[in-house]
Structures are given as structure tokens and as C-alpha cells.
Amino acid sequence: MTISDDPSALSLDDLPELLKDDISVKVAGCDIDGVLRGKLMSKKKFLSVAKDGFGFCSVIFGWDMHDQTYFRELKISNAENGYRDIVAQIDLSSYRRIPWEDNVPFFLVSFRDPDGGSLSACPRSLLERTSAKLEKAQISALAGAEYEFYQFRAPSNSELPVSERNSSATAKFLQSNPAHHLPSLTEGMFGYSLTRPIQNQDYYYGIFDACRKFRCDIEGWHTESGPGVFEAALEYGEIKAMADKAALFKLTVKSIGSKYGITPCFMAKPRHGLPGNSGHMHVSLVDSNKKNLFARESADPSPPFPDLAHVSDIGRHFLAGLLDGLPDVMPILAPTINSYKRLVENFWAPVTVSWGLEHRAASIRLIAPPTASPKATRFEIRVPGADTNPFLVLSTILGLGWRGVEKKLEVTLPPLGKGEDTGGASDKGLRLAKSLKEATDRFARKDSVAREVFGDDFVDHYAGTREHEIRLWDEAVTDWEVKRYIETV
Questions:
Q1: Is residue 488's pLDDT more than 80?
Q2: Percent over 90 (pLDDT), the chain
Q3: SS3 of 360, please?
Q4: 400 Cβ neighbours under 8 A, 6+ residues apart
Q5: Torsion angle defined by CA atoms of residues 93, 36, 463 and 130, in that order, rounded to the nearest 10 degrees
Q6: Which part of the chain is the GS catalytic domain (predicted)?
Q7: Side-chain half-sphere of 303: how many Cα atoms within 13 Å?
């Protein structure tokens, strides 16, 4: 075989030939916030650990996205266990080369417990465990990811080259300047514009080309409505590979942005009064013959709701599972304090447990005949923002949906009608959490669906990380507070 053509067939015996012209290898794994943490290692070291994995400091599951240890120490990594090592298991099938780093070879890892077995809090391992439940039934899940994101020009400094005007320069600028002083990549509301990308042509095409070379291919790439906002739809495929691609897409955009003095921003709501950044996920199930299991052979003459006429029984159960569990998993779909600034009424963002055929205001958009072909039948989960961890989001969708299939849950909530918006008088769906605290309290409670789907170890760990985020917010003094109260109280 030609080794690089099919990484899924890569074996340990192939590595010496694959890396014969290299002196180093880069490896990375995903933390709980969706940040890739990794290192560069010598080829000799890599080859020596390729089979059994290597020790990786567990502190990446003991601190937050800014490397601050959690206020309440959690089970996996803490002072009592000495922030011990966990095992990073190299996934040979994840092989690719980083085109913007002289094509250095790159592999993803999944984290394992040093005592053996899958690590409860490892996002990539969680998706592996969730997918395994379906694979036992000879069913595979397919997925697609869509990300919107703002882009800002890093503060200029004539003494620095453009490549140094990167996210670090932006972070330093924000220490002493208000966020609204950051200039957008482009100005105005120009969704699907053919002219706006030409203003940053090398950057725009550079991301598209880099994603192709880095095996996180973009299917659709355009401007979205908002100053400096782009949207990418990643190529549909197997769900575990899609999570990898989604995480690597963010890495690609941020890396290429640094070379052009641009700071991409995947926050859910970076600008007041403007649309937020979504991270919609599409999911379907197929059998061993790649037949879509959500599609019905022929239209049901008496469906529970007309919107479900072309949806199979397994598709209906899957949808019912999503609707039943959605309120209990909101900290995963909206993981930050800022996430809930996006999930407000009248901003094209879903705020209730809701669904509908081709309904873009609903939490779950059903894509099915007669508006789509049977083989394209799928669910688009529209609650997640661009700030989410793709491994956790896809694990959640798959876990909730499969629970619905196993329990043969039925859809009892009527769909949103055309012209109906979420949160309106006719919307019968439960209002989703309005804050991270409300969401985390529901997620962590003893009878939470999240505990049933993911187990106590994961829920306790993840809830602890969100409680940390909430406490930091509770202690923060914002510019809004100072401006509002400094003189008048």
C-alpha cells in the first residue's frame, strides 16, 4: 500500500518507513474544554512509545483553559495523587502532516487511566465508548460539523512582523483596552459575499487549502452575516473522525490566522447586539451496508406528526431521546458563561426543547423527505455554539439518541410550525437553561439523564469544571458593573 493514502490501515511496522525522512513528531490530545494539548518529540522517542503509549501529566484534567487549577480538586488529577501521569495512547489512524509547520508528522492520542482502561474524563475516549455501544449492534454514526467564527485583526505594531501580531498580542491588548476596540477583519453584514473574501484572499484560500492537506476538509466555506464572520461546513463522515476533524479545524484556523496577524474567535457571543457563533452538528445512523437508518422505506400514512412521515421508527426513537435528554446536558452544549448570551430569544438561536422539519429556529432541525433525499435524512442539532468541545457534543448527541432507541422512547412533543419561533406562546417545549449555573445544577443532579448516559465519574468531573468556571465569573468585576455603578450608587 501507499502508506499516506490510507492512515486507517497504518501499522506499527509501517512507522520506520513512514518517518524515514523525519527527525521529530508532534502529538496532541484534547482536554475537557476542547483545547488540544501536546508536544513535539524526537522520532526515536515516538517510535519507542508508539505501541504502548507514554506518560502525560494528568494536570491537563486538573486545570482550566488558562492553566489555573480548579478551586475544588477533582478525582483524576489533584495534589493528593501528585498530579500523576496518565497514559497517552497514540492513534496511528489519525496520522497527518501539518502543512504550516514544514509538514511535521502529527498524531492524536486518547488518554487512558494508568490503572488500565478508558479515562472517564477524556473527551476522545468518551466518544469511543459511546460509539462502541452502537458498533455492537453493527451500526455506525455519521456526522458533520458547521462552525461560525468572528475574526479580528491583531493590534498593529510597526516594530513587529505580521506573524508576531497574533493571538498573544491580542490578549495583551485586551489587558488594557476594551474589547470593542479590536478591529474586525472586515466591516458590515455581508453573508455569502463573493467580494469580502477577496479582501483577505491569501488567508481565505490558505485556510481552505491547509484544511485539505491536514485532513479536516471543508465542504462549504463562506462569509456569514456579521463583521469579519466566516462559516465552514466540514466534510460529512464517520462520527469519531468528524470530532477529530472539528478539533483540528479550529487548530488550523488559529494557526493560519497567526501567520496573517488575524485572531479567529470561536466565542459563542463576541459582540453585543450581533448574531452569535453557532457550532451546529448533523448526525445520522447507517447499517453495515451504509443504508441510512433514519429514512423510512415509504411514507407512513398515519404518523404521530406529519413531519415524521418519512422518518423510520429508529429515527423517531433517536429524536425522542434527544428531546428527552436535552435539558440535562446543556453544560456540554453551552459550556461557558458567554454561551448563554447567544441562547436568547429573537437571535436565530434555539432556547427551548423543540424540533421541526426543516425548521431553522428549532433546537433540532429534521432534514428528511420531501425536502431532502432519503439517504440524506439526518438531524441537525442547533443548540451548540462554536465554543463547544466537538468530542463531548457528538458523544452527547449519540448517547442521548441511542438511549432513546434502546428505551424505544416516543416523540410526544409536537413540532414547531412554519413561522413559529422558539420561546413563543405556541412553543410547548421546556425553556432551556438561561445560565451555566442553572445548566450545571440540572446536569449534576442525582437523577440526571447525563448520569444515566455517561456515568457518575464523567458527570462529577465535568460538573466540577463548570462549577470552577461559575465561581470565576461570580468573583469577576466587569466593565459593565463599573460603568453602571461607579458614580450612581
A1: yes
A2: 86
A3: coil
A4: 321, 322, 324, 325, 326, 329, 449, 453
A5: -10
A6: 123-489
A7: 18
Residue type at position 181: H
Q: Model pTM greater than 0.90?
A: yes
Mean model confidence pLDDT for the chain: 94
Which helix (H) or strand (E) segment holds residue 16: the answer is helix 15-18
- Tally Cβ neighbours within 10 Å of residue 48: 12
Question: Is 256 in contact with 100 (CB distance < 8 Å)?
Answer: yes
Please state, in angstroms and rounded to a whole number, the distance separating the CA atoms of residues 303 and 311.
9
Assess contact for 438 and 463: CB atoms under 8 A.
no
Dihedral angle sign, alpha carbons of residues 461, 464, 470, 476: negative
One DSSP character per residue, 208-259 reads HHHHHHTT--EEEEEE-SSTTEEEEEEPPEEHHHHHHHHHHHHHHHHHHHHH
Bridge partners of 326, per DSSP, are none
Q: Which three cell numbers stand for residue 372?
A: 431532502
Kind of pairing between the strands at 355-357 and 364-367: parallel
For position 386, what pLDDT does the model report?
98
**Are residues 115 and 33 in contact, defined by beta-carbon separation less than 8 angstroms?**
no
**110 with 124: CB under 8 angstroms?**
yes
pLDDT tens digits for range 232-278: 999 999 999 999 999 999 999 999 999 999 999 999 999 999 999 99
On the 0-12 / 13-18 / 19+ scale of CB atoms within 10 A, 301 is exposed
Q: What is the mean pLDDT of residues 328-353?
A: 93
Nearest CA to 10 out of 215, 284, 306 is that of 215
Q: What count of other Cβ atoms lies within 10 Å of the Cβ of residue 73?
A: 15
Query: What CA–CA distance (Å, rounded) separates 351 from 481?
Result: 26
- According to DSSP, residue 136 is labeled T
Q: Provide CB contacts within 8 A for 44, sequence distance 6+.
A: none
DSSP assignment string, 453-479: HH-HHHHHHHHHHHHHHHHHHHH---H
Instruction: Report residue 77 as a C-alpha cell.
Output: 488529577
Give Cα 399 to chain centroid, integer Å.
15
Helix, strand and coil in the chain, % to nearest 5: 40, 20, 40
Residue 393 CB neighbours (<10 A): 29
3-state SS, residue 352: strand
Burial profile 53-70: b = 16 or more Cβ within 10 angstroms, e = fewer: bbebebbbbbbbeeeebb
Chain centroid offset of residue 345 CA: 23
Number of CB atoms found within 10 A of residue 290's CB: 9
Q: Write down the residue that cell numbers 525522512 correspond to.
A: 21
CB 154 within 8 A of CB 169: yes
Residue in 207, 181, 53, 213 with CA at minimum distance from that of residue 125: 53
CB neighbours of residue 434 within 10 Å:
14
